[in-house]
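Input record, target 12 of the design panel.
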């Protein structure tokens, strides 16, 4: 609605994980480099963690866009209440493995054959398991066993585990120490710093075809940080609602006091449960 008013070609603050809008802060640069390195160098287990809304999914998509085209990927999204056998069924479906598989062993044999064939063809295989903090110890142990699918010289499949900080705590338990020891590359997404508010906003506005100084007055950055705590998704959420409200009032550029008023009306992220109340999932 407000795109034309502010001179945008498209919405700059959509909450969809579009890699074009990824601004590479220091933590995002490190995470992107770690993912690309781990996948292309066949490192086996990779771990990406961060709070809700820090940009893990967007970063993953950006990494996948930078890896060689001889890479086959599968993504498991639904991780709630998965049994080990359920997980193997989802992996088989994602990789297009067909057949009558009744047991865990049947699935593992078929998966190993597929991986060996792809290796023979010179292809790299990547399995991404999102929201892995939802998995129980038994299913996480099954994932560890998948790393046994290897040759004498390299891993047949790279496994990327992504999740919220609870995943790190879960992997630190004695029952999962063998899985924790196999993680070759890991990165934890940190929130943005106060001095990164303006570059983040300016980047997204620029990708959408606008100019920061024509959209916001100087001084809005402190309110965006207070509201978001450095969480990119909350920054975008506030910016989107501010611009919609400013458009309805014919206000451009938007002054700091207007942003502050809108942030206060939305509650501010520092209040307990704010992200949950807004239904923000990573």
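The sequence produced for target 12 reads:
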């Amino acid at each position: 609605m407000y795109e034309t008013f502010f001179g945008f070609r498209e919405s700059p603050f959509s909450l969809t994980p579009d890699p074009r809008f990824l601004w590479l802060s220091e933590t995002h640069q490190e995470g992107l480099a770690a993912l690309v390195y781990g996948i292309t160098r066949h490192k086996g287990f990779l771990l990406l963690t961060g709070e809700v809304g820090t940009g893990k999914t967007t970063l993953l998509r950006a990494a996948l866009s930078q890896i060689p085209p001889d890479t086959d990927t599968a993504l498991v999204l639904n991780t709630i209440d998965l049994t080990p056998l359920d997980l193997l069924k989802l992996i088989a479906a994602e990789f297009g493995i067909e057949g009558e598989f009744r047991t865990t062993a049947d699935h593992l044999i078929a998966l190993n054959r597929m991986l060996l064939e792809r290796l023979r063809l010179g292809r790299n295989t990547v399995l991404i398991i999102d929201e892995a903090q939802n998995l129980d110890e038994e299913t996480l142990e099954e994932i560890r066993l998948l790393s046994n699918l290897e040759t004498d010289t390299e891993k047949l499949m790279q496994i990327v585990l992504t999740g919220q900080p609870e995943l790190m705590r879960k992997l630190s338990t004695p029952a999962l120490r063998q899985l924790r020891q196999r993680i070759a590359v890991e990165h934890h997404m940190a929130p943005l710093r106060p001095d990164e508010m303006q570059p983040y906003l300016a980047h997204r506005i620029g990708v959408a075809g606008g100019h920061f100084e024509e959209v916001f007055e100087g001084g809005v950055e402190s309110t965006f940080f207070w509201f978001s705590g450095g969480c990119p998704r909350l920054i975008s959420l506030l910016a989107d609602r501010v611009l919609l409200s400013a458009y309805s009032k014919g206000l451009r550029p938007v002054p700091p006091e207007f942003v502050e008023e809108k942030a206060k009306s939305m509650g501010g992220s520092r209040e307990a449960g704010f992200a949950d109340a807004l239904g923000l999932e990573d």
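Confidence is low (pLDDT under 50) at residues 270-282.
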